[in-house]
Specification:
This protein has helices at residues 3-23, 27-41, 54-69, 72-75, 88-103, 109-114, 118-132. With 134 residues, it is mainly alpha-helical.
Length: 134
């Protein structure tokens, strides 16, 4: 599967994960679903690597995506999304934006940017979902 098809397939699967995240009340299951969502968005769903540190995971994803694409120019056709970003900071921010929009929640940008681990991000997202449903 070429990189463009891979991204398209994973975007559809990630939307399904968002649907599950919206209704997941158990914090541990929410965290595991968030992991799955990130793996899909970062094109790491079949990769055994995992690091709860968002920055390390993001850097790994960029390296892996560049290796899979073979030609960095192919990534420019993907547009601005989590799979085709050119820097770890941008990719991290795009992940947060996609989660905020996808879950339909308000999320303090400073708090979200300060979440260093996926578990911390899961706690912020879970709290924002609870607040949105009140």
């Amino acid at each position: 599967m070429d990189i463009k098809s891979h991204v398209k397939r994973n975007e559809a699967l990630a939307r399904e994960e968002l649907d599950q995240l919206r209704t997941q009340a158990d914090p541990e299951r929410f965290y595991l679903r968030l992991q799955r969502y990130i793996r899909l968005r970062y094109l790491l769903e079949d990769d055994p690597y995992w690091n709860d540190d968002i920055a390390a995971l993001t850097r790994y994803s960029i390296r892996k995506t560049l290796d899979q694409a073979g030609d960095p120019a192919k990534l420019s056709d993907l547009g601005v999304n989590c799979a085709g970003s050119s820097s770890a900071t941008t990719k991290h921010l795009l992940l947060i934006i996609s989660l905020r929009k996808g879950l339909g929640i308000d999320l303090d940008p400073d708090e979200a940017a300060c979440a260093e681990t996926v578990r911390e991000l899961a706690a912020l997202l879970g709290a924002a979902l609870l607040k949105a449903h009140r």
